[in-house]
From TrEMBL, chains A, B:
Keyword Transcription regulation applies: yes
Organism: Sphaerisporangium rufum
Location of region: Disordered: 341-363
An example molecular function term from Gene Ontology annotations: DNA-binding transcription factor activity
Biased composition (Low complexity): 346-363
Gene3D superfamilies: 3.40.50.2300, lambda repressor-like DNA-binding domains (1.10.260.40)
Annotated InterPro entries: HTH_LacI, LacI/GalR-like_sensor, Lambda_DNA-bd_dom_sf, Peripla_BP_I
Protein name as catalogued: LacI family transcriptional regulator
Domain named HTH lacI-type: residues: 16-70
Length: 363, 363
DNA sequence: CTGAAAGCGCTTACAG
DNA sequence: CTGAAAGCGCTTACAG
């Protein structure tokens, strides 16, 4: 139509629209629309003619127009701190898969765990482009959430910050951390350390896992020694490696350590290896998340395995419900977890070892 | 407007549109549009009034409408086999970041490496929703690409399949594989194996890395023994673990192995550990990709490090150029790589070891 | 510097 | 079962 483009324009091959298909098939646009959208009341002959025309013209519906008309886009956003943190990468894969089953497309936001960016995401940087948001915040506060004005349906992954208006899908962090720590205590370890404490008020996960750790110490009759609780700036391998080094430098190093995620544990394992400390002989190590790396680590890593598949599936499900217009009170859904005991607390398997592939995805 | 919704409708709080803002600010919609889009010719006083109205009404532009009008969406798709394969996860993070610099949003497609799904992606499942596509295919053939009818701008990551119409951003695979293999040969290893060969014709990367491996053997004056070339079904840890086991079961096991990616190498390391084979003492191991896991593996992994940052950046750049209407001939861009020598070929570092954190992202 | 009006490509009541 | 027409919420020539 508008022939105002620069001279680079490929060809005069004008974009094919519904009307063109209708003209070629000799029907109204309504009928073409019906065929495209799979409505029932179209005679087979008409349908065939329309489909032939669609093929011949290579017509594709313009989704922006459809979205504008229908008031929805079929796109949801997944906002995570970093896409290449294995836990979030696995989650992303599962969310994309679960969304696809509902014909939803996933758009990705990376917040870097930065509060300002998380506020933007909560406030709807993509307002009207996305129909819903699955959000795993790191630094967002309850106040931020309460101040939210955007009304895009949202489901939060992770701890429930305050009692805001959003659905949450979570793991029972306190219980899971207690189980992991208790497992270490039952190995006969007396000085069980923790790696992963965090100061800032928004660090809900860290707080809950720390609480579970402390409950377990009490239950096992072990003294709580704050010197054995190592704070970290972030939850990457490097933080775990450094924290482990600090713990080893103490006069009374631990004989077990519960790391608040697997990445921290993998970093800790590396430090232990470099220092020549035997795992689990000298120090037993447990993590949290059950990322695939842990199944191939040296030694393989004992960890809390949340049901990530269900986490993703439930999140998409709750979101779809809200998107469909249901407006129940904010819900909090718990997904199951289990403790997976591997070599880092149970010793190396006798050779020949079980094929670690059996623990991985078969794909 | 249409008050036809079911009784669940939250409130009569009608969606705020441009017109409402214009009315409140006492200007025309054109002026509001100018303010929203940051055009220059608006008096400061007017701008302030409009901005106040936007805040008061909590107005957000409807992106679908804007897209429809402008003929573009500002959204690009990234299609990869699996989001939780570390290499693709790292790439995804970098692509999302690079896209953001250009105000582009990234939507993710997972193909599972399945040809049918890859054909769909190439044919534009999201036609008109996305302005462009960055695509890392696994099973797609040159014929598939030649048959492509969708004209969404596309940039391919990985090997150039045939000489189709698409831009490619690639690593010099043959050279890189040759360097890695030569490194092993220069350690004095005589029986250098390869893990990662693949049969199917679309496996361009496998073919090129195998070629580089063979070139290096010839250059080093080593005999080519096809029994030392291990094929794999996929490029996951489990495949590497199994392939390594097969190589070890031979009468004449290798004293070095070049794995076509890091995941295969990590699986191989696990098998070697279980079998009590010393790395690099008995067998030196090298990989390809430089994923973060390799920096914390036991031992740390020697690998070819492609400049992933540049890979992502260039891909987005080429795509943006095509999206802007430039239609040069298909381009093939090579990004640099380097061989990173670590413990798996160079032995363990003397204690105290360098902090592995220094090798990781600092974040 | 601002206003009034057309139109992007669909879907959807409303008629027939 | 199908047609003609309105309208989703923007942006953009076109006037002034």
């Amino acid at each position: 139509m508008a022939d105002t483009g620069p001279d680079l324009e490929p060809e005069d091959r004008r974009r094919v629209v519904l009307k063109d298909v209708a003209a070629l098939a000799g029907v109204s646009v309504k009928t073409v629309s019906n065929v495209v959208n799979g409505y029932v009341h179209v005679t087979p002959a008409t349908r065939a003619r329309v489909e032939a025309a669609i093929r011949e013209l290579n017509y594709r519906p313009n989704l922006s127009a459809r979205n504008l008309r229908q008031g929805r886009s079929g796109v949801i956003a997944l906002a995570v701190p970093e896409l290449d943190i294995p836990y979030f990468a696995e989650l992303a894969r599962l969310v994309v898969a679960a969304a696809e089953e509902r014909s939803l497309t996933v758009l990705v936001d990376q917040t870097g765990g930065d509060r300002a960016r998380e506020q933007l995401v909560a406030e709807g940087i993509r307002a009207h482009l996305i129909d819903g948001l699955i959000f795993s915040p790191l630094a967002l506060t309850g106040e931020d959430l309460a101040a939210r004005t955007d009304d895009t349906p949202m489901v939060l992954l992770g701890e429930r910050i305050h009692h805001g208006p959003a659905d949450h899908v979570v793991v029972r962090n306190v219980e899971a951390a207690r189980e992991a720590t208790l497992h270490l205590a039952r190995l006969g370890r007396r000085r069980v350390a923790a790696i992963g404490a965090q100061d800032h008020p928004a660090a809900g996960t860290a707080r809950l896992r720390l609480a579970g750790y402390r409950e377990a110490l009490a239950a096992a009759g072990l003294p709580a020694d704050d010197g054995l609780v190592a704070p970290v700036a972030a939850y990457h391998r490097a933080d775990g490696a450094r924290a482990m080094a600090r713990l080893l430098d103490r006069a009374d190093p631990p004989d077990a350590v519960f790391c608040f995620n697997d990445l921290l544990a993998l970093g800790a394992l590396r430090t232990l290896l470099e220092r020549g400390v035997d795992v689990p002989g000298d120090i037993a190590v447990a993590g949290f998340d059950d990322i695939e790396d842990g199944r191939y680590a040296t030694p393989t890593l004992t960890t809390v395995a949340p049901d990530k598949e269900q986490l993703a599936r439930r999140a998409v499900e709750l979101l779809a419900e809200r998107m469909a217009g249901a407006a129940p009170a904010a819900r909090e859904i718990h997904v199951p977890h289990r403790l997976v005991v591997r070599e880092s607390t149970a010793g190396r398997p006798a050779r020949p070892a079980p094929d670690p592939a059996a623990a991985g995805r078969t794909s």
